[in-house]
């Protein structure tokens, strides 16, 4: 793509002339970024445009890839929209790609791939027929109707920054709703009236929160007002689709920004009520901290403790982030005002684990993710008390064993949970946890902590006690496991003597 073929200069509408000076330089910079990124589009994409045009069909690059091009980011997967029908698209992609597949023909979407060669990298595309979506008020699924123009298709997009297109093969920029100006301003605005847009597809309200987290953008006042008034309508969308948007929000660059939108517009009340539920009234003497703000800070600090791809907790880590956000969700149900003016939240970790599991099941999370998150919530207070030096080697072993493969995440959640402004207290807690990690490392050097097992296995237990498989074997194994945790590895001979003594005390 030559400089003469670059994205044309933006014509700023008259009603925006007052602010033109504020954004003109930013728009120009975005144009330069897009020119550079679009110039790198593989020749295979140009071939795709020529193929559709020769067949008499329109095709354009749309949505996130166009937005990201202006932000200077190249997208690995490319989205297109076309005037061709799904059957026509499938036939053309079969000629263009090395592989093609039906992503959802009823929704008009066909996928294809060109394998990497010495001349170009792998290219993956999704091509969707022009369409318009809306929800039946009584249904959880959108109604799909195919459209007849690029402009009509762009008008049904969620936000103006995602309603820009580049026509192929001529690489003509199309921006009927002023998305480029909004991109320069960092604003999320709907292409049509916000209330109508969110009524047509309520999931767009979740996307508003998600894009705030991913892009760091703010909501247009009309969009914020409409979401606040229509938040309850999110309940008609399937739990799985809502969950996926929530995950993208939490895995975004700045989840706090998205969560603030999520809570302040009322969406969270219908999706994750435990989060706004942590906004406990603060008493005049401030005897306890704001649990909601504390949880957002813990999330920020946990994110800071994520590692690179080669570290023990590569970021972004969904399990750690959900656990950090919900670790104190049991506090509202357990808050008690004690004599002397103190406030207690006894057993809030256990209550919080149950609430977290219940909510995650409602949002259709998989069993493994639910188990991992709830275990972290359950264990997040286990460290407290270590600073007094009361932990034996047995307690350290139990800490490691109970955390299991979640230990590195638990380290980070526990450290992130310190949000006190008292520097002396914060330093004391940090030093104490440094000490615990050093104890764990020391014990690891002496024995196997990653997968602690008794000194005798089930077969040996049955042979020593002359018993068949059954409950007694399980009880014996548990006894030896407790022995192993308390005393460390003692060897098979000592374990045999202990086992026989225990068996005798049972009167067997």
Tell me what you see in this structure.
- InterPro entries: HD/PDEase_dom, HD_domain, HDIG_dom, NT_sf, PolA_pol_head_dom, PolyA_RNA-bd, tRNA_adenylyltransferase, tRNA_CCA-adding_enzyme.
- It holds the Pfam family PolyA_pol_RNAbd.
- This is Poly(A) polymerase.
- The protein is an alpha+beta fold and 508 residues long.
- The chain has 3 domains: 183 residues, Beta Polymerase, domain 2 (2-Layer Sandwich), CATH 3.30.460.10; 140 residues, no CATH class; 48 residues, no CATH class.
- The strands form 4 sheets. The protein has a 7-stranded mixed β-sheet with strand order 3-4-5-2-1-8-9.
- Strand 12 and strand 13 form a beta hairpin.
- Helix 13 runs antiparallel to helix 14.
- It is elongated, with a radius of gyration of 29 Å.
- The termini are far apart.
Strand order of the largest sheet: 3-4-5-2-1-8-9
- How many structural units, i.e. domains? 3
User: What is the percentage of strand-forming residues?
Assistant: 5-15%
- CATH level-four homologous superfamily name of the largest domain: Beta Polymerase, domain 2
Distance from N terminus to C terminus (CA atoms, Å) equals: 85 Å
Low-confidence stretches: 1-18
- Architecture of the largest domain, CATH level 2? 2-Layer Sandwich
Q: Would you state the CATH class of the largest domain?
A: Alpha Beta
Main sheet specs: 7 strands, mixed
Counted by DSSP, the helix tally is: 23
Average of per-residue pLDDT values: 87
Report the CATH topology name of the largest domain. Answer: Beta Polymerase, domain 2
Q: Tell me, what's the shape?
A: elongated
The total strand number stands at 13
- Estimated structural class: alpha+beta
**What percentage of residues falls in helices of 4 or more residues?**
40-55%
Q: What is the CA-based Rg, rounded?
A: 29 Å
Protein name: Poly(A) polymerase
Keywords: ATP-binding, Magnesium, Metal-binding, Nucleotide-binding, Nucleotidyltransferase, RNA repair, RNA-binding, Transferase, tRNA processing
GO molecular function: ATP binding; metal ion binding; nucleotidyltransferase activity; RNA binding
Cofactor: Mg(2+)
């Amino acid at each position: 793509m030559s400089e003469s073929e670059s994205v044309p200069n933006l014509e700023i509408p008259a009603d925006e002339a007052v602010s033109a000076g504020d954004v003109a330089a930013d728009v120009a910079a975005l144009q330069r970024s897009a020119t550079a990124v679009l110039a790198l589009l593989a020749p295979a994409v140009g071939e795709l445009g020529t193929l559709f045009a020769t067949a008499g069909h329109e095709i354009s690059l749309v949505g996130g890839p166009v937005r990201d091009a202006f932000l200077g980011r190249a997208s690995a997967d490319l989205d297109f929209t076309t005037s061709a029908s799904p059957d026509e698209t499938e036939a053309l992609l079969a000629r263009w790609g090395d592989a093609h597949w039906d992503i959802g023909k009823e929704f008009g979407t066909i996928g294809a791939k060109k394998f990497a060669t010495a001349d170009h990298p792998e290219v993956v595309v999704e091509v969707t027929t022009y369409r318009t979506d809306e929800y039946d008020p009584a249904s959880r699924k959108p109604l799909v109707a195919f459209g007849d123009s690029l402009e009509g298709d762009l008008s049904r997009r969620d936000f103006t920054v995602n309603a820009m297109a580049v026509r192929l093969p001529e690489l003509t920029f199309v921006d009927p709703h002023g998305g480029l100006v909004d991109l320069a301003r960092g604003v999320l605005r709907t292409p049509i009236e916000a209330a109508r847009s969110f009524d047509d597809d309520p999931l767009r309200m979740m996307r508003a929160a998600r894009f705030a987290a991913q892009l760091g953008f703010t909501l247009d006042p009309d969009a914020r007002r409409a979401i606040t008034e229509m938040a309850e309508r999110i309940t008609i969308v399937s739990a799985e689709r809502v969950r996926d948007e929530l995950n993208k929000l939490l895995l975004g660059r700045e989840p706090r920004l998205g969560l603030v939108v999520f809570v302040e517009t009322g969406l969270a009340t219908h999706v994750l009520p435990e989060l706004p539920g942590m906004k406990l009234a603060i008493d005049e003497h401030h005897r306890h901290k704001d649990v909601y703000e504390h949880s957002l800070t813990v999330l920020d600090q946990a994110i800071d403790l994520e590692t690179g791809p080669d570290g023990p907790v590569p970021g972004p880590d969904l399990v750690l982030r959900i656990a950090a956000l919900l670790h104190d969700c049991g506090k509202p149900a357990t808050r008690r005002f004690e004599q002397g003016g103190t406030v207690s939240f006894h057993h809030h970790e256990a209550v919080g684990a149950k609430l977290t599991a219940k909510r995650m099941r409602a949002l259709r999370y998989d069993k493994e993710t639910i188990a991992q998150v709830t275990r972290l919530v359950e264990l997040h207070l286990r460290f407290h008390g270590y600073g007094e030096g009361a932990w034996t080697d047995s307690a350290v072993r139990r800490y490691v064993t109970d955390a299991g493969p979640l230990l590195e995440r638990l380290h980070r959640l526990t450290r992130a949970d310190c949000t006190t402004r008292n520097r002396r207290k914060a330093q004391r807690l940090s030093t104490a946890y440094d000490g615990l990690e050093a104890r764990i490392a020391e014990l690891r050097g002496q024995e196997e902590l990653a997968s602690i097992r008794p000194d005798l296995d089930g077969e040996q237990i049955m042979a020593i006690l002359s018993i068949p498989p059954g409950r007694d074997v399980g009880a014996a194994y548990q006894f030896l496991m407790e022995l192993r945790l308390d005393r460390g590895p003692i060897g098979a001979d000592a374990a045999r003597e202990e086992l026989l003594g225990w068996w005798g005390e049972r009167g067997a």
